[in-house]
Design goal:
The protein is an alpha+beta fold and 261 residues long. 23% of the residues lie in helices and 29% in strands. It contains 4 helices and 12 strands. A 7-stranded mixed sheet has the order 1-2-3-7-6-5-4, sandwiched between helices. The protein has a 5-stranded antiparallel sheet with strand order 11-10-9-8-12, with no helix packed on it. It is globular, with a radius of gyration of 18 Å. The structure holds biotin (BTN). Biotin binds next to helix 1, strand 3, strand 6 and strand 7.
């Protein structure tokens, strides 16, 4: 059996909350996790892919992974409070800090950034059958790819950019899975309040002038605070406060422009 030398080693992950399926290539790990749920896979099951042919981002966007240099995986969780996506981004920040010592920032609600550039994202999809649950799909750029993939229409960075050695993807993956599993249980028992301070500390949207976009309208204002439900409050120049409960915001990047995504 030929195994690509840089392929992820699924046997080097240590203990995990559920079974892990490693796929050299698949359509989307979120799709595979959904099919797994229909086939009776237990909560905590994980699907990880080296390459995705139909990787999905939020709001119908496409998601591109760098084979051998990024992580693309999905975990099956039982139904959880609507703040789970925010908590999941904090789980990634915590796990990455523990393994690599490197800090990440969260762009509300759950984009992962480093030095103002996107380094990862989370796509959470709920389902009702055969029992209510969630697929939490996480994409994270780990090491800089040797060549920049074509067709990327936004600026990105990787977790390991500037380091002399590649980061161990297996350790990062295992740490994120276990952190998210533990955090999801704390969320059930204690609610979002248990994460509020750490989330606010990691969120670099607060204090910035951002633009909130929904399908129907667009509002700009100062991201003034986060409420107990995870909604972002935008203070407009006339003093009006708008609560953003869903959707995406655009906030300035390092070049002062509104960095896309
Ligand atoms: C975003 O920022 O728009 C969310 C990106 C989520 C990408 C991950 S990669 C693993 C999983 N499978 C998918 O098709 N999407 C998620």
């Amino acid at each position: 059996l030929m195994i690509a030398p840089r392929a992820l080693n699924p046997h080097a992950l240590g203990p995990l909350p559920g079974p892990l399926t490693y796929l050299p290539e698949t359509d989307s790990t979120n799709t595979q996790a959904r099919l797994g749920a229909l086939a009776g896979a237990p909560w905590g099951s994980v699907w990880v892919a080296e390459a995705q042919t139909a990787g999905r981002g939020r709001d119908g966007r496409q998601w591109q992974t760098f084979p051998y240099d990024s992580l693309a995986f999905s975990i099956l969780l039982p139904a959880l409070p609507p703040t789970l996506p925010l908590v999941a981004s904090l789980s990634v920040v915590r796990a990455v800090k523990a393994v690599t010592g490197r800090g990440l920032q969260i762009k509300w609600p759950n984009d992962l950034r480093r030095q103002g550039l996107k380094v990862g994202g989370i796509l959470t999809e709920g389902f009702r059958q055969p029992q209510p649950g969630l697929v939490v799909g996480i994409g994270l750029n780990i090491n800089p790819p040797a060549t920049t993939p074509e067709g990327l229409e936004f600026h990105y960075t990787t977790l390991g950019t500037g380091l002399p050695q590649p980061l161990p993807r297996e350790e990062v993956l295992a740490a994120i899975i276990n952190q998210l599993w533990a955090d999801s249980q704390v969320l059930v028992q204690q609610g979002f309040g248990a994460f509020y301070d750490d989330y606010v500390a990691a969120c670099d949207s607060l204090g910035q002038t951002v633009t909130w976009r929904t399908a129907t309208h667009q509002v700009s204002g100062l991201a003034a605070g986060l409420d107990a439900s995870g909604a972002l409050s935008l203070r407009q120049p006339d003093g009006t406060v708008v609560l953003c409960r869903a959707g995406d915001i655009i906030q300035p990047g390092p070049d002062g422009e509104g960095a896309p995504r």
